[in-house]
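User: I'll paste a sequence; please echo it back and then give the predicted structure.

Assistant: Echoing your sequence first, then the prediction.
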Amino acid sequence: MNVLIVYAHPEPRSLNGALKDFAIERLTQAGHAVQVSDLYAMDWKAVLDARDAPARNPAAPFNPSVDSKHAFESGTQSADIAREQDKLLWADAVILQFPLWWFSMPAILKGWIERVYAYGFAYGVGEHSDRRWGNRYGEGTLAGKRAMLLVTAGGWESHYSARGVNGPIDDILFPIHHGVLYYPGFDVLPPFLVYRTGRMDETRFVATRDALGERLDTLWSAAPIAFRPQNAGAYEIPALTLRDEIAPGSSGFAAHIEQAATAEALSG
């Protein structure tokens, strides 16, 4: 299988660097082909702007959606964007690896998403009607592929628990899991999380590395998060709100996950 690791940490000698190197080794030894987009090493341009559509009319105002759509459809995107899109199409699984900075991904990785996820590639695809509202949330260009977050955090695991001061980690990562990954079609696996990174000694590193190896070994067999597909009947179209009979009384992020299916997958 083909695995793309999109890696966002500025220091190769960091914990993240060690885990990335281990992941490459583990996946390669298992017979998988691996590509890495090391965003800091690539000096990735994080800002989406008019330079990403070099064939656009320079006299017209820059429109990120319209101009990215035209550039994608006409084959006139910036070369670095096209290369990353080719990697996504090549990959059977994608791992986004990053430290949790200010409750989200580093800006360079957010910029990778904004530039690579062009209109017509990752969004704005499919039929929009009174029966469907585009190929997204379970459908789309990247459907059939798997994705997983590998995230490190300086705080304690309890800080990110259901009653922890930082808020539940599942809620913090929901916009990435559901929006960045599930939206264009990925089957999204539960994340691999490492807490208290500043307290990482050799014994704990070995245990962390071994646990990551086990997760990588199940990259194609683990049950994905049971997000509700948009066009499968759970949502009213075009309002895109859950039907009254779906998760009655529930709201917020958790309502968009099929809890029964998730519980069954975990118990199995």
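Confidence is low (pLDDT under 50) at residues 260-268. The chain has eight helices and eight strands.
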